[in-house]
Structure formats: C-alpha cells, structure tokens
Write a structure and sequence with these properties.
The chain is mainly alpha-helical. It folds into 2 domains: 33 residues; 166 residues, no CATH class. It is built from 6 helices and no strands. α5 packs antiparallel against α6. The structure holds protoporphyrin IX containing FE (HEM).
C-alpha cells in the first residue's frame, strides 16, 4: 500500500496535525465567535500546553529512558547516544523551556493574574487560593528553568565534550546532570498539577 504523503515524514505528520487543529478551531470560532481576550488566552494556552508537553516529556524521557540507557551502555553505545540522541534531546528541552516560560508569562495577562484592571478595564475578583496555586506553580517552574540553563546545560556540555573537562570533571558533571534532571522530574509533577488546579478547580 503506498504511504500517504502526510505520513511520509515526522515533519509532514506534524504540519498536518497543526493544520487539522487550526481548521477545527477556525470552524468553532466561525460558528460561535470569540473576543480578543478569549482568543489570546486560547492561543497562549495552546502554545503553553504544547511546549510544556514537550519539556515535561523530555524530562520523563531523560529520567526513565535516556539515563538508564547511558548507564547500561558500553563505551561505543554511550558514544553513539552522546552523538546522536543526547544533544537533540537537550536542544528540544532547552527551547521548549523558553517557550513555556514566555507563553506562561504572557498568559498571566488575559487570565487576570497580572494587570487585570488594565486588561479588563476594571478590577476583577481573583480568589486567593487560585492565585496562590498559580504563583506557587510558577515559582517551581522558574526554578526548573534555572536548573536547565544554569546547571544542566553547562554540565551537559562538559559531558558531551563541547566544553573542556578532565575525566573526574566529566564524571562530576554527569552526576550533576542526573541529579538536577531528577529534581526537575520531581518539580514537574506539582507544577503541572497546580497549574491545572489553578485553571480548573474554581
Ligand atoms: C514546567 C513548567 C510549566 C508547566 C508544565 C505548565 C503547565 C500548565 C498547564 C498544564 C496549564 C493548564 C492549562 C489549562 O488546563 O487550561 C497551565 C496554565 C497556566 N500557566 Fe503554566 N506551566 C508551566 C510554567 C508556567 C510559568 C513559568 C508561568 C508564568 C510565569 C505559567 C503561567 C500559567 C498561567 C497564567 C496559566 C493559566 C491559568 C488559568 O487559566 O487560571 N506557567 N500551565
């Protein structure tokens, strides 16, 4: 059976998925309308959730698949993983983490957590518990971002040989990457759950 063009590569499948989602949302808007606050909240939320899926997905992959594979591999296997897999995973989670932070920060406006009087033209009621859940999760998420960019990525560059380091320094860098990857796994659970709770509990 010939392969349909939309499934001939990951890129084509992704673009087709985006096109399907866009058509469905445009049809919904054409049918029922929306306003600028609703629309911007939706767009930012969609970007936020999709990039969070990629970031947290990579955290999951690194902890439960990549790290055990690196530990269990022989020298040749480890070199292959360091050349073909680890740099791509790192590029994905680094860029996804920027997008999560940026979309989350912008999403604070249409959802009323920040500058609500300016966005809505009048003060709005923000339940204290909802705000505490959101700001607590955001603080955890910022800590995760700092771990990625201040600890994990610089040490990963030593592990991968992109930055100089002796054998002992490489071993120490590997241990640090593994430790902070676990810290991010730990934080990813409450951050995600608290964000969903802030959005839907009330
Ligand atoms: C690991 C990092 C993060 C993850 C996994 C994450 C995940 C999520 C998820 C799953 C939602 C719920 C979407 C929904 O159900 O409608 C959400 C909402 C939200 N997030 Fe995040 N987020 C992260 C970081 C951040 C950061 C750093 C900020 C702000 C600086 C932020 C601001 C928001 C806002 C404002 C909402 C909407 C809440 C509402 O509708 O009441 N997020 N996030």
């Amino acid at each position: 059976m010939p392969m349909p063009a939309i499934l001939s590569s990951a890129r084509n499948a992704l673009l087709t998925g985006i096109a399907l989602a866009t058509v469905a949302v445009l049809a919904a808007i054409a049918a029922s309308g929306t306003d600028w606050i609703g629309f911007s909240s939706f767009v930012l939320r969609a970007i936020h959730v999709m990039s969070a899926i990629i970031w947290v997905g990579m955290i999951w992959f690194v902890n439960f698949i990549q790290h055990p594979a690196v530990v269990g591999a022989d020298d040749a296997g480890r070199a292959t993983l360091f050349r073909l897999v680890v740099p791509k995973v790192a590029t994905l989670f680094r860029h996804a983490s920027h997008l999560v932070l940026l979309s989350g920060a912008l999403l604070l406006l249409p959802t009323g957590y920040l500058l609500a009087s300016w966005v809505y033209g009048a003060p709005i009621h923000m339940p204290m518990t909802k705000a505490l859940l959101l700001w607590g999760a955001a603080a955890g998420a910022v800590a995760m971002w700092v771990f990625v960019h201040v600890i994990i990525w610089p040490n990963l560059q030593i592990v991968l040989g992109a930055q100089p380091g002796s054998a002992e320094e490489k071993a120490a860098a590997r241990a640090k990457v593994a430790l902070y990857a676990r810290a991010n796994l730990l934080l990813a659970v409450p951050v995600t759950v608290l964000m969903v709770a802030a959005a839907h509990l009330f």
